[in-house]
Amino acid sequence: MSKQRTLLSILQAVTYSTTISEIADRLYLSQPYVSRILKDEEAKYDVTLVDRKAKPIALTKFGSSVLTNLKKIASAEDSLTTSLENLKSQQARPIRISNSNPFLTDYLATAIADYVEQHPDTVIELTRPAERNVANNLNEGAIDIVIDQRWNAANILIADLPSPVYYLPLFAQCRPFNPDVLTLPFEKNTLTGISHCRYVGLSGHSEFQAYVDSLFKRVGIQPRNKLFLPTPASALQTVAKLPNATTITTRKIAALNLPAHQYNLIPLPTNFIRTDTSIMCLQTASAAVQGLTAFLTAELTRSIQ
């Protein structure tokens, strides 16, 4: 313990002690050591800090002033130590990103890889979607960057991302497949051909699934025998193996997971289906976190559009 902290403890102990010896006993110090600390500091400031003649002993007005200021100094030192420890822990752990939109995962993975290539010392962890609210996860440091529905708060930096164009994939076993083109028009004849397809949905995304179901009903699609899988990629790969089946996908996911010329895509207009997603971090986040957030915002916006 520093001499300054020892003096703080001694002056605090005066208020509930009757003698210098009692202070020494309470603080597990020797009586001569306590007396020497007091004499040294009194000589330093040329004041009397403790009235030893009083019964019980008491702080003088100078002692009370020193005690008040020592408390402020100790509090500031503790705050500084905590702040530095927090910064050290942030440097030691990865920058954590939570993404709740499964259709952005491939775009996000590509953007993160590009960033790490440019900043090789940066460690990034793409985590599971956060179960608690955005503000709590950011404020408590559980997550550094959140990609989710917009969460308005004064201390959060928010950038809205464009919605990907979504598609219904078709394969040779499902009418009206055409091997000579990639896309088929979003029109009545095409939709009628898949009106009773099996639909493979996403597990763990009940709100999105309910949204898709309501959209399908609007255009007369009544999917049957639903199967739910954890990712858009696994859903798409399964659809490719099933007769007369479809799912919701994006052009990038299809290109990464399906052989060329063996599928069609029906683009769904953005006024028919869209996902509203934002990327967020704290306004007080480190320069590294804010820099990564800005980079991802630019790259995701460019890739999605």
Q: Concise description?
A:
It contains eleven helices and 13 strands. It starts with a helix and ends with a helix. Strand 1 and strand 2 (58-59) form a beta hairpin.
Descriptive tags:
single chain, 305 residues, alpha/beta, 5-stranded mixed β-sheet, 3-stranded antiparallel β-sheet, 11 helices, 46% helix, rod-shaped
Characterise the protein shown here.
The protein is 46% helix and 18% strand. It has eleven helices and 13 strands. It has helices spanning 3-14, 20-27, 31-45, 61-92, 105-118, 134-139, 188-193, 206-218, 232-239, 251-257, 287-304, and strands at residues 50-51, 58-59, 95-99, 124-127, 145-148, 156-161, 166-170, 198-202, 224-229, 245-246, 249-250, 264-268, 277-282. The strands form four sheets. Strands 4-3-5-13-6 form a five-stranded mixed β-sheet.
Principal-axis shape equals rod-shaped
Low-confidence stretches: none
Beta-strand portion reads: 15-25%
Distance between the termini: 60 Å
> How many individual β-strands?
13
Q: How much is the average pLDDT?
A: 85
Helix content: 40-55%
**What characterizes the major β-sheet?**
5 strands, mixed
Largest sheet, spatial ordering of strands: 4-3-5-13-6
- Gyration radius, rounded: 33 Å
Secondary structural class: alpha/beta
Helix-strand sequence: HHHEEHEHEHEEEHEHEHEEHEEH
Please, how many helices?
Answer: 11
